[in-house]
Design brief:
The chain is an alpha+beta fold. The protein is 30% helix and 34% strand. The strands form two sheets. Strands 3-1-2-5-8-7-6-4 form an eight-stranded mixed sheet. It has a two-stranded antiparallel ribbon with strand order 9-10. Helix 2 crosses helix 4 and helix 2 crosses helix 5. The two termini are 17 Å apart.
Length: 186
């Protein structure tokens, strides 16, 4: 699976050169989307928890991971190191999204009812150093708020079909712990 060099337009219309690295074979639709000259992120999303609630907000990574069916990210996004101005702009945008717990949403063709959710993460680049990056999850359109609400207020039932059907309930904490275990195993 080859990396795809393209440009990403942030919702505030700043454009940077970037690299999408597939984590698994890409669908034809996602491959076509990433082959465009400019991949356009039309909006940012963050979960606005009700004010009268003192529960912690679910992390965007937990929400995207739950919606993706725990199959992990489809792509990883990083700045193109060839262009220093793109790296600086990318890092600025990444820092803002990470602090505000925001994701970027890239819409596919409306007929497909899917979107690419780009979640800001810190990526290990060495023993003790990290860099900004985004993990991209292909999820059903317009379900981010619903999934965040379910994770925020209760338990989400996830059914795994192995040799027999198992029922497992996840909270935000258990999903985040599972994501950490998966990251540690990589």
């Amino acid at each position: 699976m080859n990396s795809i060099r393209t440009q990403l337009r942030f919702p505030d219309k700043e454009t940077v050169k970037c690299i999408f690295k597939p984590c698994k074979p890409l669908s034809n639709e996602l491959g076509s989307l990433l082959q465009q000259d400019v991949v356009e992120s039309l909006l940012t999303w963050s979960y606005a928890a009700p004010e009268a609630n003192n529960l912690p907000r679910p992390a965007p990574l937990a929400v995207a991971h739950a919606l993706a069916g725990e199959r992990g990210p489809d792509v990883r996004l990083s700045p193109d190191p060839v262009d220093p101005s793109s790296v600086a702009t990318f890092e600025e945008q990444h820092k803002l999204h990470l602090e505000a717990q925001q994701t970027m949403v890239v819409r596919f063709d409306p007929k497909l009812d899917q979107e690419l959710v780009l979640v800001p993460v810190k990526v290990k680049t060495g023993q003790k150093s990290t860099a900004g990056g985004y993990w991209g999850y292909v999820v059903p359109s317009n379900l981010l708020n619903l999934a965040a609400t379910v994770l925020h207020f209760g338990r989400l039932a996830v059914v795994f079909d192995l040799d027999e059907t198992l029922l497992m309930a996840h909270t935000v904490d258990s999903l985040q712990a599972r994501i950490k275990r998966v990251n540690a195993a990589k």
